Amino acid sequence: MSEDSFDADVAIVGYGPTGVSAANFLGALGVRTIAFEREKDIYQRARAVTVNDWTLRCFQSVGLDTLLVKDMDPHTLYRWKTFAGKELMRMTVPPSALGQPAAMAIYQPVMEQTLRDGAARYADHVSVRYGETVTAVSQDAESATVTSDRGSVRVRYVLACDGGSSPVRERLGIRLLGDTNETLWVVIDAKVKRWWPDRQILTFWSDPRRPVVDIALGIGNHRWEFPLAAHESEADFRTTDQLWTLLNSMGVTSDDVEIHQHAFYKHHVRRAERWRDRRIFLLGDAAHLMPPWAGQGMQSGVRDANNLAWKLGQVLSGTVDSAAAESLLDSYEVERAPNVARMTAESERLGRLIKMQLSGREKAGLMIGAVVAKLTGRTPPQPLAQGPAIAKGWQNGRSAKGSAIGRMPPQPFMSTATGRRARLDDHLGSGFVLLGDGRDPSTLLSADQRAAWDRLGARYVAVRPVDGGSEAATDLIDLEGVVLDWMRRHAATVIALRPDRFVCADQGDLSVPTGDGTSYNQDGD
To answer: Beta-carbon neighbour count of residue 523 at 10 Å?
Structure first.
């Protein structure tokens, strides 16, 4: 089928944070993309509250991290506290090795505007149709057709980023598995008028009757989340005066903040039974829904988009054959679903802590952790402390303890042979890169391996110690020894990095991965 028979390579249905992130990632690769968004303006209610280092590293790949961070505030401390004033636990956010702030408070509408402006940089091959509702999606062996209330377009692939109620998912007949907690919560967003003590600390007021989330958002906004009791309903908190009864119970008055919006919602723990239907992929809330306690819902959608975009880029550019293309695209769910499952489980656990509904084992662990922290001066074990990792997928072998496979290396400032300093990813660019510990990694490849990596456009970079000398213009100098130390701790003399900066091969097998097309099983690994 000729290129002219397609209106674009990819259609994105839904232009919220997941869809606009996908547009940026695809746009940076030069993929012809059409996005559909039924609303004309950005949804003004701030839903997500935070982003972390991994998510910001994704945005760094398209040059948006600095712009985004300027409208964010750092999260440095979390605490769990009773209404009686007893602090159950506090966590200091540890510094990140990923080259980005470890945790940042956001204001979602502003963040989304920056992402939309970012996608506009690729106007030559990314177009957005605002105010256009998708009414049907169909597909055949070679294409997919997206029909809206203004016509149809023919594309190669479709990304359904259309939220938890996803009409695309419904039309495909893909079931949404899981449960919804019937407790109704009210979210109150306010503009800060004056500072109050410890406002910057993300506080979970832990109580089995009325637990409250108390969190600073970006650019002078603040949020509280209250569960409604069984005898309460939305009608009890429709007006500003009614909302003030909740805030006043927390000691917050009109001298402190100005309420500017509120909304009601329930917590979901749901996942689509499959995330791919031939040429159509589910991303973000269309594929999975989790409670908000770990702040990972929106971020998981961004990571979905980052994972899938480079794979579509490889397939659409023709650098992989048809059989390898299917395996590569199938690896999207294989890689992302386990991480989403882990984030969901962590979010549920944090929710039980906030509501003081812990199991006996969890209560004992909390008490022991608090005692050890008090005696040693150390912070308790950190939720979500495990860094980004892929258990299996488009990589040579499974991730294992002590192995670099499936992990993301740190990102310190490095120097070129001529002295130009930048973070690691900024030196490496957007494609595949092989890094060698003090050597040119290409010298360890067989002729067939070298030819295969060359077809993918891979670069070969020697990482040199700061007390050594460069031998080639492509060398990078590890100014603080961070990358070399990481490679040696993982017994890796060579690592191959994918475009999303996960290690897919090391000296144990330097072949180009063939991928893993096995469907992810929620009850499996």
So the answer is: 4
Amino acid identity at 425? D
A 10 A CB-CB count for 419 gives 7
Architecture of domain 3-71+106-178+270-351: 3-Layer(bba) Sandwich (3.50)
Domain range list for the chain: 3-71+106-178+270-351, 72-104+182-266, 413-506
Of 45-49, 67-71, 126-130, 182-186, give the lowest mean pLDDT range. Answer: 45-49
Nearest by Cα to 11 from 27, 32, 39: 32
The token pair that represents 386 in the structure block:
């495990």
- If you average pLDDT over every residue of the chain, what do you get? 91
CA distances (Å), origin 243, targets 34, 45, 136, 253: 41, 16, 41, 11
- Please enumerate in sequence order all residues whose Cβ is within 8 A of that of 255, keeping only pairs 6 or more positions apart, or say none: 193, 194
214 CB neighbour count, 10 Å cutoff: 19
- At how many degrees (to 10) do helices 297-317 and 53-60 cross? 30
Question: Which residue type is seen at 9?
Answer: D
Residue 383 CA to residue 345 CA, distance in Å, equals 11
More confident residue, 180 or 120: 120
| Tokens representing residue 27 in the block | 């746009």
Closest CA to 434 of 443, 423, 426, 421: 443
Cα separation of 427 and 413, whole Å? 9
Residue type, 55: T
Tokens 């499936």 sit on residue: 406
Tokens of 91: 């966590």
The CATH class for the domain spanning 72-104+182-266 reads alpha beta
Give the separation between CA 187 and CA 305, rounded to whole angstroms: 27
Q: CATH number for 413-506: choose from 3.40.30.10, 3.90.1140.10, 2.60.120.1440, 2.60.120.460.
A: 3.40.30.10
User: pTM above the 0.90 mark?
Assistant: yes
Amino acid at 515: G
Closest CA to 353 of 87, 106, 92: 87
pLDDT of 151 above 90: yes
**Checking DSSP bridges between strand 157-160 and strand 10-13, what pairing results, if any?**
parallel
State the sign of the Cα–Cα–Cα–Cα dihedral 255, 251, 75, 404.
Answer: negative
User: How many angstroms separate the CA atoms of 162 and 365, rounded?
Assistant: 39
Going by their DSSP bridges, the two strands 280-282 and 157-160 should be labelled as parallel
SS3 389: strand
Determine the longest span between alpha carbons in the chain, in angstroms: 74
Residue 443: name the closest of 432, 457, 431, 453 by CA: 453
Q: Phi/psi at 169 (nearest 5 deg)?
A: -60, -40
| CB-facing half-sphere around the CA of 186: CA atoms within 13 A | 23
